[in-house]
Amino acid sequence: MVIAIANQKGGVGKTTTAINLAAAFALRNKRTLLIDLDPQANSTMSYLDITTIERSMYDVFVDSAVGMADVIRPASQENLWVAPSRIALAKLEARLVGELDSHFKLKDKLALVADRFDVVVIDCPPALGLLTVNALVAATHLLIPIQSSYFALEGTDDLLETIERVRTRANPTLRILGVVITMHDKRTSLARDIRAQIDKVFGKKVFRTVITKSVRLEESPAYKESIFRFAPESSGATEYYRLCEEVIDRV
Length: 251
Ligand SMILES: Nc1ncnc2c1ncn2[C@@H]1O[C@H](COP(=O)(O)OP(=O)(O)OP(=O)(O)O)[C@@H](O)[C@H]1O
Ligand SMILES: [Mg+2]
Prior knowledge:
By secondary structure, the protein is an alpha/beta fold. It has 12 helices and 7 strands. It has a 7-stranded mixed beta sheet with strand order 3-4-2-5-1-6-7, sandwiched between helices. β6, α8 (156-168) and β7 form a beta-alpha-beta unit. The model has no long low-confidence stretch (mean pLDDT 96). The site of adenosine-5'-triphosphate has 18 residues, from α1 and α10. Adenosine-5'-triphosphate is lined by residues 10-16, 38, 40, 42, 126, 182-183, 211, 213-214, 217-218.
C-alpha cells in the first residue's frame, strides 16, 4: 500500500497528515516508510536532524547509482523510516526535463525496496508538477486533505484532472482513498457550512474522522515527535489514530 497525500493548495495539512498517519501505522506494528517529496522538507524535519542528511530524494531522482536504500533513515519511533527531502528538490524539474521516464522515477526506485515495508506514505509539495505526478504514478492510493476554510474546494478541479491524466496511461489502478477535512473548528457555523459543501462534492469519499484545529498538532513537529508521543491524550492523537483505522478499513 502506497498512499500519496496530495493537494496542490498550500498549508492544508498534507505534512501534518503524512507524519501522523505514518506514525499511526507504525504504532500498529506496520513497517512504515514516510517519503518526503516536498523541497520545504517539513516532514523530514519532523523526524530527522536535517544537518545530518547527506543524500536525499533529490539524489534518488537524479543519480541512477543512488537507490532508496541509500537515503532511507530510521526515525526515533519503532517501525518508522524516513526518505528525506532537501531544498535541492526544488530544481528537480529543470534537471529532469527531456528525460522520457521522468514520471516513473519514484515508482521504479521504490519497487526495489517495497518488500521492506508494509505501508508507504508520500508527502507531496503544494504543486501539481513533476514531484506530485511521480507520487501519483507510484501510489496505489491517494488521500486528499482539505482545509476547513472558505476557499476549501478551490483548486480541487485541477487536482482531479491531474489524477484522471495519471490514470489514463501511467497508473490506471490509482484509487482515491478519501478526503480528510483538516483544521476544522466545530464551534463555527462557517465550518459546518464548509463541511456540508465538501460532503456534497465528495460524498462517501469524505472520511468520517475530521481533524480539528489543535495547538498540539501544530507544536509536535518542533519537538521531532509524532502527536502520539508528544501529546498522546490530545484530540489530534485520537483523530489521526481513527483516521488510520478508517484508511485500513477502506483498502
Ligand atoms: N489540525 C491542525 N490544527 C492546528 N494547526 C494545524 C493543523 N494541521 C496543520 N496545522 C498547521 O498548519 C500549518 C500547515 O500545515 P501543514 O504543513 O501540515 O500543511 P501542508 O499542506 O503540508 O503545507 P504545504 O503546502 O506548505 O506543504 C502548519 O503550521 C501546521 O502545523
Ligand atoms: Mg507540507
